Amino acid sequence: MGELLVVLVGNLLTMIDMSELFGARRRRARAAAAARGSRVEFPCVLRDDEATSGRERRGWIAVGEGPATWRTPGSEPVPFDPGELTMQAVDKQSVTFHAAGGRTELRLHPDEAPLVLRALAG
C-alpha cells in the first residue's frame, strides 16, 4: 500500500507545472502594480527592425508613467512605439501581435497582453 501511495504522489507531482504556478504569482503582482499606476516591466519576446535588428530577443517592455521602453538583459532601455498591433496567434503560453507591415512581432503571456496593449494604446 505504501508503494502505491509513493507512485501516486510521484505521478501527481510530475503533472504540476511549477513554472506556471510561480509565474502566475509574478503575473498577479505585475497586474496589481499596473493597477496602482506604477511603471511595470512585462517579459516578452520581440522582433523589431530597429530595437532588435530583426532578430527575436527575450526582454521586457516597461509601461506606465512615461513612454514605453524595451530592454534586454544587460542593456539600456530604448523607446518602443510599435504603432497599431494586430493579433496573429493565440495559445496557452503566448499571444502574438504584428505591427502594420510585419516589421514588428511581439509575444506576451495571455494574462498580460491586455495590460500592455492598453498601455501602448494610451
Task: Provide tags for this entry.
seven-stranded antiparallel sheet; 34% helix; alpha+beta; PH-domain like; elongated; 122 residues
Approximately how much beta-strand content do the residues carry? 25-35%
Q: Per the principal axes of the C-alpha atoms, what is the gross shape?
A: elongated
Count of discrete domains: 1
What is the chain-wise order of helices and strands?
HHEEEEEEEH
The first-to-last residue Cα distance is 60 Å
Oligomer category: single chain
* CATH class categorisation: Mainly Beta
- Uncertain stretches: none
Spatial ordering of strands, largest sheet: 4-3-2-1-7-6-5
Number of strands: 7
Main beta-sheet strand count, sense and barrel state: 7 strands, antiparallel
* Tally of alpha and pi helices: 3
CATH structural architecture: Roll
Let me know the average pLDDT.
85
Radius of gyration: 18 Å
Alpha-beta classification:
alpha+beta
CATH fold-type name: PH-domain like
Structure write-up:
- There is one protein chain.
- The chain has 122 residues and is of the alpha+beta class.
- The protein has one domain: Roll (PH-domain like), CATH 2.30.29.
- The chain has helices at 2-15, 18-35, 113-121, and strands spanning 40-48, 56-63, 69-71, 78-79, 85-90, 95-99, 104-108.
- The chain has a seven-stranded antiparallel sheet.
- The longest helix is centred in the first third of the chain and has 18 residues, at 18-35.
- The chain is elongated, with a radius of gyration of 18 Å.
- The mean pLDDT is 85.
